[in-house]
Write a structure and sequence with these properties.
Layout lengths: L13 H26 L1 E6 L4 E6 L4 E6 L9 H32 L8
Antiparallel strand pairs: 1-2, 2-3
Helix pairs in contact: 1-2
Length: 115
């Protein structure tokens, strides 16, 4: 009686094995890239350098640096705006680096599946 369904010989065809190996390799590369990105720092400045903020690739603020000139008790709102601007720019930089990593990984797919 002939077998129905499945692959001849009971195993995966060569293309499927290659695809699985490629997917596993890409997953390892993605994990390594994400670990590397998490350790990177991104620094942005606002107010001509009066406010400087550093974030990690995990989007955690690690440093906020203010010059004396920007600390004006009469204008707290300006300081808040500068801190917010620097944080948002640093986070944008981290996100851009993350997107680059993702694009490199997607490029490794070779344009699609071979079937």
């Amino acid at each position: 009686m002939a077998k129905r369904g499945g692959f001849p010989g009971g195993g995966m065809p060569g293309n499927m094995n290659n695809l699985m190996k490629q997917a596993q390799r890409m997953q390892r590369q993605m994990e390594e890239s994400q670990k590397e990105l998490a350790t990177k720092e991104f620094t942005a400045k606002a107010g001509g350098g009066a406010v400087e903020v550093t974030v990690t690739g995990k989007k955690e603020v690690t440093k906020v640096k203010l010059t004396e000139e920007v600390v004006d008790p009469e204008d707290i709102e300006m300081l808040e705006d500068l801190v917010r601007a620097a944080i948002n720019e640093a986070l944008r930089m981290a996100e851009e680096a993350n997107a680059e990593v993702m694009n490199k990984m997607a490029g490794g797919l070779g344009g699609g599946f071979p079937f």
